[in-house]
Amino acid sequence: MLGTSGKFNENAFTGYRANSKSRPKTNKMNRINKNFYPYLIFILIAVPMSAFSQKVKNKNNYTYQVREEKGDLNHDGKMDKITVKMDTVDETRPLRLQVFLSQPNGKLTLAVSSDKIIEPQFPTENHGKFNGFQIPNFFIEKGVLKMWSEIKGGNITYHFKYNKGNFELIYVDKLTSDTTKGYIDENTIFTETKFNLITGVRIESDEKLGSAEVPKVRKKRVLIRPLPRIQDFKFSDKDRY
Q1: CA 63 to CA 81: how far, in whole Å?
Q2: What residue segments make up the domains of the chain, in order of their start?
Q3: Which DSSP state fits 219?
Q4: Which one of 132, 144, 154, 209 counts the least CB within 10 Å of its CB?
């Protein structure tokens, strides 16, 4: 290369050679990037679509109805309805509770749905074994939705009441025993728990089967705010009450 003085400029020539050698690499990288982008776009689109398809598939498999109860839940004088349906495709046999409220036109509209409130019949942690409990029963009494469930050593009943668009847990009644033999006898002690979540008063009483002794009573205040909503409630929450 010639400089301004007309002499050969070695530095300019060296820079030119360096730039010349780097050009093929830049072109190669551009080709790689151009080939990579379509694959990247495909992955970004395919993964969400796959997840969405799986979600839709799981959502539509609750087809076997095992429970239905009708009654007025929101005090409007119209019959509302609750259903419990099982997913017969999922090996764990999960269950879905749905509450439908009557509208002025007489049609039922879905108000709340939960897949967490009832334990699957064959929980994952049981490795294919039955959980040992029957599917909960539901009752509608004086505008209150009651869910009666079997638990280890007894049973528990949850009371949910409609309030400002939500079904809130207002009361829990639980009965358990200390038996470990699989049957009860004169030494079995029953513990009854009555928990009013509105006032926060929780009362426990122990009574031996067939005993004339006055039951031992324990009373304490446990305030839970906000009140648990049915859509947030999980079957494992039984240990809280």
Answers
A1: 17
A2: 8-60, 62-240
A3: E
A4: 132
